[in-house]
Amino acid sequence: MEFIDLKTQYQRYQADIDARMRAVLDHGKFIMGPEIAEMESALAEYVGVKHCISVSSGTHSLEIALRALNIGPGDEVITVPFTWISSAEVILLVGATPVFVDIEPNYFNIDINLIERAITPRTKAIMPVSLFGQMPDYTEINRIADKYGITVIEDAAQSFGATQNGRRSCSVTKISSTSFFPAKPLGCFGDGGALFTEDDQLADLMRAIRTHGGLQRHYHPYVGTNGRMDTLQAAVILGKLPYFEHEVTARNKIGARYTELLRGSCGVPEVMPGNTHVYAQYTIRTPDREALAADLKAVGVPTAVYYPKCLHEQPVFAPYGYTWGDFPVSETMSRQVLSLPMHPFLTISDQDRILEAIKRWSDVRT
């Protein structure tokens, strides 16, 4: 049983993906080839915004967003401590200070009731994470940001394809970022990512920053970086994109079935009213995570932990003075979460094996 079945996905779409990659091999434009612009146009249309700017990774996209907003030393950026390190390391990379706000327990996303008390005169951005595949309450987050004149950046690395009140993830904030890491809901065959915005000036600035600080060759008005996405990776995305909405539907059905049949055996992920969920990870909660993971491994069911430690526990963030107990919900979740196999090709029989194993384990414990 695969935790994320990329092999089956490739076999299903092999003709399309191979044809797209072969076209790149034939024309030889491996950097900024025509597939880049084609993919950016297709993704912008899918999301429902004017601009998509492809980049070399989801991490790089967040850094470029911060640079485009001129965020640096002396500035603060609010994010969460329960996420992958990229969400906060990019704040350090531009010289700013991360300010952590705890999550709430039902959706694993930022607790909107705690945001305002974290805002100071130095706060320049709020960067919530749409963790595990659904968005936090962006209506309220945007309201708070507007009140204080702060920019919101959606870290949508795990939620591409999800919606909130009919609007797609990556369309509800001034800048949004996603990742095309292979395990993500829409993944390429290496590293890749994208930025989304309605703002023409920001779009041009982010395009310039990703290409060594300029839009014209040998003219560099900004401090930039090499943040370009490889043409071959864009070709992979284009090969997969026609099937993506079908995969999103499949993820919703599989996730909903997990939740319906696991409720009562463990903590299950809830879907916020108005949201759809793409279940980048289907994540349950139990105080006996290690025991359950061991039992599942014994019957051939792979699991993973996203994430075993909060960011404020990592040595790199020690200088910022956070201690254990500052973020009780994040700390509890980090010790209880366990992610189960989730991908669009998970069969009913394999899912039943997983469900039966968890129910047996739960019955023994009770």
Got a strand count? 11
Q: Kindly state the mean pLDDT as a whole number?
A: 97
Q: What count of helical segments does DSSP give? A: 12
The run of helices and strands is: HHEHEHEHEHEEEEEHHHEHHEH
| Fraction in beta strands | 5-15%
Instruction: Give the neighbour order of strands across the main sheet.
Output: 1-9-8-5-4-2-3
Q: What sort of overall outline do the alpha carbons produce when their principal axes are compared?
A: globular
What low-confidence regions span 5 or more consecutive residues with pLDDT below 50? none
Task: Name the helicity range.
Answer: 40-55%
How many angstroms separate the termini? 28 Å
Using the CA coordinates, give the radius of gyration. Answer: 20 Å
| Class inferred from helices and paired strands | alpha/beta
The biggest sheet, with number of strands, parallel, antiparallel or mixed sense and barrel status, is:
7 strands, mixed
